[in-house]
Amino acid sequence: MKSNTEKFGKTPHQPSLWTRADALKVRADDPTTTQPLVSANFPVLSDEVFIWDTMPLRDIDGNITSVDGWSVIFTLTADRHPNDPQYLDQNGNYDITRDWNDRHGRAKMYYWFSRTGKDWELGGRVMAEGVSPTVREWAGTPILLNEQGEVDLYYTAVTPGATIVKVRGRVVTTEHGVSLVGFEKVKPLFEADGKMYQTEAQNAFWGFRDPWPFRDPKDGKLYMLFEGNVAGERGSHKVGEAEVGDVPPGYEDVGNSRFQTACVGIAVARDEDGDDWEMLPPLLTAVGVNDQTERPHFVFQDGKYYLFTISHTFTYADGVTGPDGVYGFVADSLFGPHAVPLNGSGLVLGNPSSQPFQTYSHCVMPNGLVTSFIDSVPTDETGTQIRIGGTEAPTVGIKIKGQQTFVVAEYDYGYIPPMLDVTLK
Ligand code: FRU
């Protein structure tokens, strides 16, 4: 198997590397890059459903958009089963942890609306049962297209396979709320190719998901980010000098880190509607560092390209580690070259080590607000007792300055204010 740099040698751009040396700089519990403690007394959005990945309605330039004064978010959602015998433990009590851990297999796309950018009201399922071609409806991005309220929802159709798809519908408002209509015809866009992006046949633990379309503010073209793994049979990847980076003496041993092969993928649209896409080589690779760079997204600020992606402690490679949270990289243009890890290490907002699973799936919005969901929060000193979330976390404010970021504020649970309002015609 060729190393990263050999492999993408003749392609239009070289992927930037998140190296092992960069990751060695990760410092958990640095207050400037650590999410404030989430209290175990958090409110839940719904007793009926769990929610996790949250996808605010936005325009193609990334602005969080309300419609006739209504904010709209999409969430990955699954029913809670407090009374289902399948989820009772030996003592007949509801095993919420098992129910929560099983949620990915029954994830569906729901929407919520609000007048205040918080206190979300449940709208319902986006697509009727049977519309989506696979069992799981995984993360993506809803894009408001125009003043007619048309929305393209890009998402991932999973099991069987993993396909980036889109479905078009429309947002309709009244004085009393919001409904979504249409969303009846799902169009498959592309799947992993096995040449640039790893396929299921190459690795049963492959990742290929989480589309995030955008218009490049400099060249004006339509692109899409997504999560992938670098192509090749599992175990065949090479963690060479470039992937290791400039490590201190004694840190050259890469262990089994060849199994961690995350990348941030990119595709370019051949048409203006975003129906026809061509995959390009990854923007960023983390071979030898981490196996998942999920829900990648950009913030365009000060003429720079801030790339954010979420990752976990458990997906780090041998010899490197970091908290669950959001990581970031900055470059002067879309294709770099050489996106630089923010704060030296890449870590932008991680969970505190005393509550390592308190939040996940952070989305950094262009106004510096970061939304995420509550996973689990310890309820005792030892951390053995936990309370499962499945609801919105307090929003955090960060300031992005050059190659650094700083935590500067905390807001209410699930606070996602609009950046602009569109009046429907
Ligand atoms: C992030 C994530 C996404 C995926 C979804 C599945 O929390 O792993 O990458 O689309 O959750 O539930």
Automatic annotation (TrEMBL):
Binding site for Ca(2+): 210, 291
Pfam families to which the protein is assigned, alphabetical: Glyco_hydro_68
Record keywords: Calcium, Carbohydrate metabolism, Glycosyltransferase, Hydrolase, Metal-binding, Transferase
One biological process term in Gene Ontology: carbohydrate utilization
Catalytic activities: [6)-beta-D-fructofuranosyl-(2->](n) alpha-D-glucopyranoside + sucrose = [6)-beta-D-fructofuranosyl-(2->](n+1) alpha-D-glucopyranoside + D-glucose
Record-linked InterPro entries: Glyco_hydro_68, Glyco_hydro_beta-prop_sf
CDD domains according to UniProt: GH68
EC number(s) recorded for this UniProt protein: 2.4.1.10
UniProt binding sites for substrate: 52, 139, 215-216, 292-294
Gene Ontology MF: a single term: levansucrase activity
Residues at the site labelled Transition state stabilizer: 210
SUPFAM superfamilies in the record: Arabinanase/levansucrase/invertase
Cofactor: Ca(2+)
Record: active site: 53, 294
Family to which the UniProt record says this protein belongs: Belongs to the glycosyl hydrolase 68 family.
Protein name per its UniProtKB record: levansucrase
Lineage of origin: Bacteria, Pseudomonadati, Pseudomonadota, Gammaproteobacteria, Pseudomonadales
